[in-house]
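Feature request, filed as a ticket because there's no other form

It would be nice if the structure record came with a short human-readable summary line next to the tokens. Right now we just get the raw output. Example of a typical job, pasted below so the devs can see what we mean:
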Amino acid sequence: MKITGKITKVLDVQKGTTKEGKEWQKLAFVVTTRDEYNNLYCFDVFGDEKVENFTKFQKEGNDVEVEFNVKTNEWKGKYYTSLQAWLIKPASEVGKEVVGEVIGEASNDLPF
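Raw output as currently delivered:
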């Protein structure tokens, strides 16, 4: 799944330790779209490298396209759903590859 919008809030990095003793960290950020309804999304970025890359390249106010997975976990009979971002890119880059492909295909279809 993917959406395009503006990063409106970046929450603090959360850190912890797994049962196996491995350290983890995650960061949550909010994207607001221009849609009339259901225009607010809170995404998680999980893992040291992803959190580091997010903090290095993204900030509040950036227009982005976010590709994500929806994940649901069950714990003690309750269900928790999260949106896990796996690709975040500037909205200005959206569609550049498609335009190039369409132009390339159109020039190849000429009858002469």
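Something like this underneath would help us a lot:
The longest strand covers residues 63-75.
Residues 2-108 form a domain with the OB fold (Dihydrolipoamide Acetyltransferase, E2P) fold (CATH 2.40.50.140).
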